[in-house]
Every structure is written in C-alpha cells, then in structure tokens.
Amino acid sequence: MTQNIYDDPEFFAGYSRLPRSLHGLAGAPEWPALRALLPRPSGLRIVDLGCGFGWFCRWARAEGAAQVLGIDISERMLERAGAEPKDEAIVYERADLNRLELPEGGFDLAYSSLALHYVEDLERLFATVRRSLVPGARFVFSIEHPIYMAPRRPGWIADRRGGKSWPVDSYQMEGARRSDWIGAGVVKYHRTLGTTLNRLIRQGFVIRHVEEFGPSDEQVAQQAELAEERERPMFLLVAADRAGP
Amino acid sequence: MTQNIYDDPEFFAGYSRLPRSLHGLAGAPEWPALRALLPRPSGLRIVDLGCGFGWFCRWARAEGAAQVLGIDISERMLERAGAEPKDEAIVYERADLNRLELPEGGFDLAYSSLALHYVEDLERLFATVRRSLVPGARFVFSIEHPIYMAPRRPGWIADRRGGKSWPVDSYQMEGARRSDWIGAGVVKYHRTLGTTLNRLIRQGFVIRHVEEFGPSDEQVAQQAELAEERERPMFLLVAADRAGP
C-alpha cells in the first residue's frame, strides 16, 4: 500500500504553507530549469503525474494545451485543485502511481514534479508512461536527487572551513528512506542516478538532458538561503523522448 | 598546458605500486562492470584514451581486436607499455587529450579508463571521439565520480552511528580540483554528472548505460576495504553510442 502522507491533516497543513504551495510554479526555484526542458504545450495532450494543487495543469492550459490529465493520490490536493475556476479541458483523477493505468498513445507530453521518489516500482511506471505516449513524445520530470536522498540521516554539517557539507552515506543501498520532512515520517525511495536513467533507457526512452539543479546567481542574490543548494544538488531534472514505434 | 603528473618520478613510483598498476585489469574492482559495457573486441579497431601501461590494449588484442591505438601523455607510462612483448597491431602514441587529433571514422570502439577527469575541455574531446568513430560505434569510459571529486577537501568522516560519511560540498562549482593523491598536487576537473552526460548528448552520442560503480557482495567478501565504496560512488562508468551519420 502506497503511503499517502498528503492526506494527513497536519502534513497537508504544513505542505500548504510551503512557497511552492502558496505561489505555485513561481515559488519553485527549479521551475525555470524544468520549463526549459518542455516543448511548447500548445495543442498537446498532457499527463501530469502527481499534480498536487494543479499549478502545472493550469499553466499548461494557459499555454494552449489541448487537454490535461492531472493524477494524484491525495484527495485533499485534488479537492483544492478542483476548487479552481472550472476548465473542461483539465481532468483530475485520483490514482496511485504504483498502480497507474493510462490509455495507450493518449498523450503528447508526460510531466512529473517531485513525485516519482514516492514510487517504489519506478520501472513499471516508466513502462506505463512510455506506452501512454506517442512516438517521439517527451517525458520531463523532477525528483529528489539521490545525493539528497541517500543518507540515512540527512542533514548539513559545518565543515572545517566554516562552510557547509552534506554527508553522503548508503548511496549504493537503494530502497526506502524515512525522512521527517514537515514533521512526518515520509517514505521515499532512494535509487542511484544511474538506476533511474538505466530504467528509462531500458523502457524505451532516449535521454535528452540531465540536470542536477543548482540556483542561478540571480536566484541566490534574490534569496540568500538558496546558496546552500550549490553545495549539493537537491533536485534531479530529466528530459527523455519516447523512442520510435 | 596540461599537467603531466605521471612523469613526475615520485608520483610515477607511487602509481606503479597501486594494485591496478601491479595486477592490471584484475586489480581494478570496477573492471568487470566496465567490461560488461564493451562490445566483443574481436575484429574491432580500438582507441584507448589514457592507456597508461597498456593493460587494456593488450587485453583487447588478446580478445581479437584488429588494431589498438593507445594514447597517453606520459612518456614513462608509454615506455613501460612499449617494453611488453612486441605486437604490431598495438601502436602507442604520446598525446595530450586536451589537444588530441584522431583520424575520422578510424575506429569501431573508443575506451578510456580514469583519464577524462584530467581533461579541461571535455566537449572538444567528445567531438573528436565522435568524429573518430564510425556511426553506431560505442564509447565506453570511466571517470572519477563527481560526488568523489566535488569536495574542496575530500575525505571520510565518522558519522553519528559509528559509520562513515563522505561530506559533499561545492558540487555545482565546476572546474579544477587539486588533490593530494599519492602525495602530489594532482589537478583534476570536476563537472556535475549532468554536465558530462549533456556534453556527450550534444556531441552526438546516445546514452546507453550510466553506472555509479559500487562493489558486489562477492568483492566486499574478498576485499573488506571495498565496503566503504558503497557509501558513495568513487567511479562513474558510461556507455554511449555514436548516433547515425
């Protein structure tokens, strides 16, 4: 049974106060980098895996997407997403990404922001996404970076030079990690970067871009607390295309 | 001017005592994983970038390679390689990988073991390798992993559980790193994993496999000191194919 922490009232309240919950895409520092990997949404049929409050779904529609399917396991998040002004071309569906079924060749773009690290059987999901895309279609996703996820007890330490370091351990030990994000025992699945890419390749994707997100100088100037994100990558961004038929 | 630390007498003496120098491929724990990424050498024209003592060149010939070109910047290493029993199908050439020129379409396989982190302009080298390969040919290389290379002062620390951690900092700050490997100020070039892969892709390669080397249970059973390599990856292994013409 997949953990559905987002429907826990306290977790949900905490999550709702994050900048990316309050301000949407503009509150996510990695969004400009992720956006750069996307094709123009105009006319596309798009699926968003782990759509949360639906910020991306609404953005894609505003950019001319023909149709957007937002998938999430959290009832509360979908409720909030559905409370936005009605748009017939956005459909929200409650589903567990570990058991997801999608229509074959039903989409021109698959997108996922910070959801795939909750998925235990990533290879099954990649196979499902591949079948759901038309040949040549793009799959863009972000995920917590394995450097960020690997340690059994993640956290910064002061280094010898008065700077910060991020101690890495257990990198090769893939599997569940329980973290105390927003005060709750959130279960995520650590995989090496190689494993994530090789599963994509094996399931018929061609890797187009791999980005280990770090903030730009401009972002650090505007938001000093982002500086630590340069010491170790927090997010992994990947763009891959479905190979030919 | 590229640093040629291998021709420093003290460094050379120290390097010559490493297991991989004394025992060749069998002394390199990552060799079985690297070998698994190679096509059968039989009948192939092969270039080895940073061939050192020529262990791989001789292995490839023993496996039936038609012709092997071994490139290295170190005169001492090539001398040692050339002192082995003569094989007309192996040619050693002294060259700086930062300025390397190779014949167009001259090779069916390019290989490099732990040399590319000495190369400042990796994109130029990738372009050179691409042109030197026939369409569809494979490029297999190992390189020090960016997690290993990023820290300004690399080293293990004891963690809170009596285990070991590898503190990462400066991951996003690409460029030169001076390390004290074998007692010398060795200059290497840190790049994020994403940068290395994206440069390959941009220069016309299709990524086939990305492996962040960790020892097998069997290897740890035989050589207990390898256990720490599971805490963070030391080597990155990549297989890519030259895209069509």
CATH architecture of chain A: 3-Layer(aba) Sandwich
What distance lies between the first and last C-alpha atoms of chain A, to the nearest angstrom? Answer: 33 Å
Q: Report the average pLDDT across residues of chain A.
A: 94
Task: Using the coordinates above, name the CATH class of chain A.
Answer: Alpha Beta
Q: Can you count the beta strands of chain A?
A: 11
Main sheet of chain A, how many strands, which sense, barrel? 7 strands, mixed
Strand content of chain A: 25-35%
Oligomer: homodimer
Outline type of chain A: globular
What is the fold named in CATH at topology level of chain A? Rossmann fold
Number of domains of chain A: 1
What's the helical proportion of residues of chain A?
25-40%
Largest beta sheet: strand ordering of chain A: 3-2-1-4-5-11-10
Q: Most extensive interface: pair and counts?
A: A-B, 39 and 39 residues
Catalogue the unreliable spans of chain A.
none
Number of helices of chain A: 9
H/E topology pattern of chain A: HHHEHEHEEHEHEEEEHEHE
What's the SSE blueprint?
Two copies of one chain form a homodimer.
Chain A: H1 9-16, H2 19-22, H3 31-35, E1 45-49, H4 55-62, E2 67-72, H5 75-82, E3 90-94, E4 107-113, H6 122-132, E5 133-144, H7 146-149, E6 157-158, E7 164-168, E8 175-179, E9 186-190, H8 193-202, E10 205-213, H9 217-222, E11 235-242
Parallel strand pairs in A: 1-2, 1-4, 2-3, 4-5
Antiparallel strand pairs in A: 5-11, 6-7, 8-9, 10-11
